[in-house]
Amino acid sequence: MGIAKDKKPISFSFNNTERCQSRCITCNGWKTSSSVMEKELKLEEWKKILYNLHNWMGNYQFIISGGEPFIRPDIFEMAQYASDLGDTVNVVTNGLALPDKLEEVLNSAFTNITFSLNAVQKPIIHNTSRGRDDAFQRTMDSIQNLVYMNKSRTGHKWKNIFLSTVVMPTNLTEIKPIAEFCKCEGIGVSYQLMDNGDAFSTAVETDSQIYGKDIKKAALEAIDEMIDLKKKGYPICNGFSQLNAFKVLIDTPERIQNIQCMVGENNFAIDPYGNCRICFCMEPIGNLKESLPEDLWFSEKADKIREKILNCTMNCRLLNCNFK
User: Fold this and answer.
1) Residue 209 to residues 23, 69, 214, 250, 260, Cα–Cα distance (Å)
2) Which of these, 63, 197, 231, 309, could form a disulfide with 264 (CB 3.0-4.6 Å)?
3) Cα within 13 Å of Cα(12), Cβ side
4) Does pTM top 0.85 for this prediction?
5) Are 113 and 93 in contact (CB under 8 A)?
6) Are 135 and 143 within 8 A, CB to CB?
């Protein structure tokens, strides 16, 4: 499956580390051995990759994620370098490393700052999902302090602040409270169903019926609640087409294959070691320490991955990759 020569990716995600203070049940990155993590790209290697990408793409927008990206102290220099080139830099964080870095975050090159948070009413839900007892309080403190400091700034452009919530059987009752919290704080939220794929790792084969019969009704009601809240003007970033697709996955999962997965045509992801993927769950198409990004994008290996994507049945097609 060749791709048109004028077709370029539109969604960029750069994972600067797999190191993390959390032990999330929805992520395997933190299980990576220290011997592998020692091979992370150095800052100068990242700068070379960013320079090559900018030469190919012109001004573009990307997300730095992890692991926990703020574990690396050079993240601010990485972001500033890209911004100086003319690119827009966003970041996703668990917030655990930010209590003493909030002023630096506000003065940084980041445009959007997204916090991962899975509950607001019952801390134990978030703590359990993150694998540490203090996760909720530390993250919530970072969010609320950053929001307050952001609104208090004068003479500076405000940062855009968002939450990202993984919707699981354990936090269905948190959907509305999270939306209400975001409305009160003046920030946005994006919901994502737990899926059967894991970013930058070998695909995790699990039962596609994550929401079994005993919780199916509650899950469908929670998504109906998301749709209703969005209609009422709550700051929910998911589009209606994605929210309705969530219902399809829970109610009739076999129909989810009707949604075309576009990651092979849209996505460009780089892991901490320079490996490049066009699908988070499949093997790399090459390494950017050795090749130019456009050469990998149009490579024979990339075309073979695009063929595999056409026959893929995983439910991660409900990720934001395929929806606006």
Assistant:
1) 24, 32, 11, 7, 20
2) 309
3) 23
4) yes
5) yes
6) no
